[in-house]
Amino acid sequence: MSYEYSEDGLVEAAAQEVLEDLGWIVEYAWAREGLSPVDDKLRKKGLLGRINKSEVLLVRYLLAALQELNPNLPATAYQQAVDLLNGTIADKHLAAINKEKYHYLVNGVPVSFQDEKGVLQKKLLQVINFAEPVKNDFRAVRQFEVVGKLYNRRPDIVGFVNGIPLVFFELKAHHTDLRHAFDDILCTYKADIPEILQCNGFIILSNGTDARVGTVTSPYKFFLEWKRINEDDAGLVSLDTLLRGTCDKTRLLDLFENLAKEEAEVKKVAKKTLESLKAEKLKIDRWRESEQVSSQVKVMISDALEYLPPEPYPDDELADMSLAVYQHVYSHYQGGGASSYDVI
From its record, what is one biological process in GO terms (predicted)? Predict the structure, then answer.
């Protein structure tokens, strides 16, 4: 039986159908890709324009977007942006690289060049058109093979926006537990081809019926079900619901653009709570009365702190405790997304 007709392949095909309905271009790359010659700087040849299979950015579409969104700049400026998005710092953890590249994708990639008069110019190049989502290139690639330093890996589907691998799909057969899909990402892809996750915004796990979404830094328990496309819909866990709730072009870019803002808001709440707790943990009631945050977040903070000991935390434990409370609150937080999230 060929892969396309296996259980895993049928789940992929179901995802492809929904993505195409949402306006994505879907390519099947395995054994069909073909590569572009090294001297083809515009990457016009081959299915995806890759020069080799270690490349994780689709430079053909990235260059086109950079030129469209930042017109009339020298070619060196565009190439700087590509190199910066493509670059890896060996001693940096994946989470730190992901955070840095998220900043570039949302706020712009810093480049410098000399203008026609020889004057040094510095600019932030936009990569994604957040104002008009439909003007971006949304391209999902099935069976996207990546050559790592030691092993070759083939993710099920990678969702590219303007050539940036923004969404990573790990899809399994119906009988497979999603924890297995998560472990594949943690143990296989993060270890062997971490480059594919450096610009990642969201990771989607599904076996066709159960489906969850998280980020590259999320532990499994913080991968969330997405039960509703709209707030008034009846709750239903399915791959179809999750894809329509997250991969609609406008919704995806809105989620991605505002991810850091929402995380920062919740993290600020958690940090403030822990700092006050360090000095005097039992005075939560006065903090609860603050109007700076929603009542729902206050309740979740209170729940997170309920069973903590009354003694002050040592300084070296404060960061870990702050992260623990933050993760607990964020997993329950519904600001902006309303009832789309449900906690595992």
Answer: DNA restriction-modification system
325: nearest Cα among 256, 255, 278, 257? 278
Please give the structure tokens belonging to residue 193: 């081809």
β-pairing, 211-214 vs 202-206, is antiparallel
**How long is the chain?**
344
E runs forming strands in 55-137: 109-114, 120-125
* C-alpha radius of gyration, the chain, whole number: 22
CB 11 within 8 A of CB 206: yes
Cβ atoms of 337 and 252 within 8 Å: the answer is no
pLDDT tens digits for range 307-321: 455 555 555 555 566
Residue spans of the domains in the chain: they are 3-246, 259-342
Half-sphere exposure of 14 (CA within 13 A, CB side): 21
Q: Which one, of 139, 167, 170, 165, lies nearest residue 154 by Cα?
A: 170
309: CB partners within 8 A, 6+ apart: none
SS3 (DSSP) at 68 = helix
3-state secondary structure of 131: coil
Tokens 């950079």 belong to: 66
pTM of the model: 0.76
Q: Which range has the top average pLDDT, 34-48, 73-87, 200-214, 217-231?
A: 73-87
**From CA 288, how far away is CA 292, in angstroms rounded?**
10
Q: 3-state DSSP call for residue 288?
A: helix
Q: Which of 17-31, 81-95, 223-237 has the highest mean pLDDT?
A: 17-31
Helix (H) or strand (E) segment spanning residue 147: strand 146-147
> Across-strand partners of 120?
114
pLDDT of amino acid 76: 95
What DSSP string describes 192-218? H-GGGGTT--EEEEESSSSEEEE-TT-
β-partners of residue 212 are 205, 225
Mean per-residue pLDDT for 148-159?
A: 93
State whether residue 225 is helix, strand or coil. strand
